Amino acid sequence: MSNKQAARAPQPVASERVPLKARKVSFSWEDTPLHWVPGDPFTTHTINVLHLLLPAGERWFVHVYKQVLPYIRDDELREDVLGFIGQEAMHSQAHDEVLPRLRELGLDPTPYTAQVDWMFEKLLGDRTLPPGRARRWWLMERVALIAAIEHYTAFLGDWVLNAEELDRRGADPTMLDLLRWHGAEEVEHRSVAFDLFLHVDGGYRRRARTWATAFATLVFLWQRGIRFFLENDPTLLDAKGSLKDFHRRGRDGLLPSTGAMLRSIPTYLSRTYHPSQEGSTEQAVAYLAASPAALAAEKRTA
Ligand SMILES: [Fe+2]
Ligand SMILES: [Fe+2]
Question: EC no. (predicted)?
Fold first, then answer.
């Protein structure tokens, strides 16, 4: 690689790498109220969209990555990918377990989750492609899509670890622990999907194209998810969310700010970008060492 090419290549921060392990957490939801950010259905439901998207989405990550394992020719990366698979499987399950509580509270998410399941299983699933180039192309496309999505899970993980305003507003401690345990593991493993993409493909055009697809799809699904929750919340009459509500919550520190979200775009598209440049492994590890759910999981397996 010439000096010029090296200056345009992703620049990892080696000290941010940590060995990955899945923590077998479990949460009790019986005391969590419908509006777990008190008096703020909009913030509650905006974050609740995670429970609609992640069970199917993270199951899909695991499904795709199991197919990529034979393409990995680096032992350290294989270990990271196996750790990633273990963590994502647990995340998917933990968010799935919130859904019965929403049903109990009168908010049945099935009409929405059925569509999300269809998207990940059928639209983004294994197509009946012949072995060879077409099948490999579709696998690489999905590996790149996961790297782009993981840019946002790491962004959200870093955000929620620092979202002190949620504590000040009295947000439900169990939900906060779920979000921060998950967020901290997203920060821990934030480089894995990108490193895997670099290892098996790494093409810049594919990175940019799949980023655009992932970003547009996430924005579309998120705003539909918020609308779904607001329309089906049994305690609300004619509730509607707007972009203004979102900006205001971002400004108040209750949701990620619009500015931070916009800045994340050129960050991912920079040729020197590497996920280890953003977020703090030290902060993530410190949260996991104190998380009630992670500590209980450790005690159970000790
Ligand atoms: Fe996750
Ligand atoms: Fe992740």
Answer: 3.-.-.-
Which residues make up the environment of ion ligand 2, defined by Cβ < 5 Å? Answer: 153, 186
d(CA 125, CA 230): 30
What does the block give as tokens for 62?
A: 């695991």
Closest CA to 178 of 24, 23, 22, 26: 26
In what helix (H) or strand (E) does residue 193 lie, and over which residues does it extend? Answer: helix 192-200
pLDDT digits over 93-145, tens only? 999 999 999 999 999 999 999 999 999 998 899 888 888 899 999 999 999 99
**Domain assignments of the chain as residue spans, ordered by start:** 38-297
Nearest CA to 153 out of 192, 208, 109 is that of 192
Ligand 2 mean position, distance from CA 190 (Å): 7
Instruction: Report how far ligand 1's centroid is from the alpha carbon of 75 (Å).
Output: 22
The Å distance, Cα 239 to ligand 2 centre, comes to 32
Backbone angles phi, psi at 147, to 5 degrees: -60, -40
Give the whole-angstrom CA distance, residue 89 versus residue 270. Answer: 30
Residue 36 is given by DSSP the state S
| H/E segment holding residue 74 | none
Expressed in angstroms and rounded, the spacing between residue 222 Cα and the centre of ligand 2 is 18
DSSP characters for 247-301?
A: HHHHHHTSS--HHHHHHHHHHHHSTT--GGGSS-HHHHHHHHHH-HHHHHHHHHH
CA distance 268 to 189: 16
Q: Which two tokens stand for residue 61?
A: 């990550």
- Ligand with minimal distance to 81 CA: 2
Per the structure block, which two tokens stand in for 20?
């990955």
Q: Which residue has the tokens 């008190």?
A: 38
pTM assigned to the model: 0.95
Residue range 142-165, pLDDT digits in tens: 999 999 999 999 999 999 999 999
Q: Which ligand is nearest to the CA of 193?
A: 2
